[in-house]
Amino acid sequence: MINNNYCVIMAGGIGSRFWPFSRNERPKQFLDFFGTGRSLLQMTVDRFRPLVPIENILIVTNIAYRDLILEQIPDLQPSQILAEPCRRNTAPCIAYAVSRIQSITDNANIIVAASDHLITNEQEFVRVITEGINYVSQHDALLTLGMKPTRPETGYGYIQFETPANPADNNILAVKTFTEKPNRELAEVFVRSGEFLWNSGMFLWNLQAIMKALHQYLPLVMEQFDQGAGIIGTPDEDSFIQQHFPLCPNISIDYGVMEKADNVMVMAADFGWSDLGTWGSLYDLSDKDPQGNVSIHSKTLFYEAEGNIVTLESGKLAVIEGLQDYIVAENEGVLLICRKQNEQQIRQMVNDVQVNFDGKYN
Amino acid sequence: MINNNYCVIMAGGIGSRFWPFSRNERPKQFLDFFGTGRSLLQMTVDRFRPLVPIENILIVTNIAYRDLILEQIPDLQPSQILAEPCRRNTAPCIAYAVSRIQSITDNANIIVAASDHLITNEQEFVRVITEGINYVSQHDALLTLGMKPTRPETGYGYIQFETPANPADNNILAVKTFTEKPNRELAEVFVRSGEFLWNSGMFLWNLQAIMKALHQYLPLVMEQFDQGAGIIGTPDEDSFIQQHFPLCPNISIDYGVMEKADNVMVMAADFGWSDLGTWGSLYDLSDKDPQGNVSIHSKTLFYEAEGNIVTLESGKLAVIEGLQDYIVAENEGVLLICRKQNEQQIRQMVNDVQVNFDGKYN
After folding, report:
1. Which H helix or E strand runs over A216?
2. Is residue B168 packed enough to be buried (19+ CB in 10 Å), middle (13-18) or exposed (0-12)?
3. DSSP string, A90-153
4. Helical H runs in chain B?
5. Counting one residue from A and one from B, how many pairs have CB atoms under 8 Å apart?
6. Which pTM does this prediction carry?
7. Per-residue pLDDT band at B194 (split at 50, 70, 90)
């Protein structure tokens, strides 16, 4: 194993779209979504174990989740958990992690990934990441992973790549444009064209390349972390971060760096990826009974019921009659019943619950 | 208070139609249906307190519920709970209670009532029962209470009365026929005719009248209890009942006595009665929000939801989107979602759950 491979896992999200399954105290990445006994975070860490020594895995999260992470990944040292005192989107999160790696070494290949995505073909994942690491170790490039689209998904951003002179050359291609989540019609055009990939939010780069780009495009962020040279990586890091991290602007790495830099490349990949952003995406990925019902964790009897996704707390029984295409989710004192097609309203419901019940059920 | 008034409360039912709110261990009569802090049984006992001395109230139940009843009605003596070793319908239940009363006195007026009905006008109830007691204390008659129908209910049996020569005479009338639950069309005819009352299952009679009728129409039942003369009312009663009660035929008092005897009278009453036989009847009786939703015990936020009845365990929150006319009931590890119109299927579901999960959720 090459010891200068590092992995940065971003685990600060709160996942309110999966409420009440996800809660403030236990967001999506900490949940066992498929009843396998492993949380999404645990699955993510396991996925990187063949690629990166465990001591080179850094998890950036909200300070509130530090203990929960140490509980779920007991072979991490506490220092491998980088605690953000507040939410500042992905650019400050990545800048912090990269600054920490710089305090350890001048020569690192870095993979950045979310903690709450699903990947079904782990062997292909390892193959692709290995190829990507090999590339970024030799190139001053910012490499993003683009997923070969399997449907005109409107929930993802898309990356358009430059058609290579010789398509057989390799599958690492220059990026033409990043696009936001398209409407259905546009998504269909994107997929038909064969020139677009889903933006997975996974990145590979070497330390020098990302440091150069961060300084060039996000000087207001790096101004904070540069003051931490000689402090980050020491016992004084926590108090430094508590003071300086909140001063960073709130900005994403996509908007702040990837959409601006001229050395951005995309590697087309196909290893069964989902960002598990919604109940609908979880439904799509889950095993179904002949009536298209999904039951996660719970025992369920269905009568004249089709296309539902049901999850209760472990050991509970649901008996469901006459429901079509609903989400039924119960967790820690909250039951949600909502049409799948209206799941985008869950965020508003979570707000209403916050207002009406003073945070008791959030 | 006249001390030879006795009340027999039948509390042996298992109420599977309200599953999972009612469970084998805590059937319907023991539940606080309206969030008042009093169970249906407690409300029933309270209703009789102005009419009958507490020591003259007998509760017939399955042996499994003896302790629960003593817990809910702490001013009862254990001997006031008559424990059936098995279910034999209402005739053996009443024969047992009447035999017990006979071991105490030769001269009693007896009211028989269910433990799990709702009565909304308790003052009128006391007035009617007082009138009925007065009547049966002077007549060799079997008096049943008939409720003035307010709608063409198909869930109740009906009693047709003989039109009195002079309608102003009184409201205690001879019975012409008992009818089973009618279909909708017939129920409408019954209500329009003005000659039919709902069969409430409440009875009044004096000890001699019911004893005579039981011996005449149910000799196979009374053969058992007559052997208990000198034993019932003593410490040996329990073992006697355990031996003899199971030998009684399974038969209702309606079919076994009331439909056969020629001295049956009905008293028309109107005190806001429901047998709370179904979720639908509970829904009809409960306070509703402007969208016609009923929430019992639980906090609920509704979105595009109408006509639902929701009950969760105390303190829980339900968020319900896009449901019309459903039952949503959660209790002790079981969640039921079922269209109100299909609530008669709940009994089958309870059976399926029994078979599939070995009684764990029953």
Report:
1. helix A207-217
2. exposed
3. HHHHHHHHHHHHHHH-S--EEEEEESS-EES-HHHHHHHHHHHHHHHTTSS-EEEEEEPPSS--
4. 40-48, 66-72, 90-102, 122-136, 184-193, 207-217, 219-226, 237-244, 253, 279-285, 346-357
5. 104
6. 0.81
7. very high
Cβ contacts of A139 within 8 Å, gap of 6 or more: A209, A265
B92 within 8 A of B8, measured Cβ to Cβ: no
Strand pairing report for A109-114 and A196-206? antiparallel
The Cα–Cα gap between A108 and A205 comes to 9
DSSP states of A7-60 as a string? EEEE-----GGGTTTSBTTB-GGGS-TTSSS--HHHHHHHHHTTTS-GGGEEEE
Contact criterion met (CB below 8 Å) for B175 and B265: yes
Quote the CA–CA distance of A278 and A18 in Å, as a whole number.
7
B278 pLDDT higher than 90: no
Q: How confident is the model at residue A358 (pLDDT cuts 50, 70, 90)?
A: confident
Q: With contact defined as beta carbons under 8 Å apart, do A110 and A204 qualify?
A: yes
Give the ipTM of the model, two decimals please.
0.80
Which of B16, B304, B314, B337 to mutate: most A Cβ within 10 Å?
Answer: B337
Comparing alpha-carbon positions, the chain B residue that sits nearest to A320 is: B337
Interface of A with B (CB under 8 A): 20, 299, 301, 303, 312, 315-323, 326, 328, 330, 333-339, 342, 345, 349, 352-353, 356-357, 360-361
Q: What is the pLDDT of residues B115-132, one digit of tens each?
A: 999 998 999 999 999 999
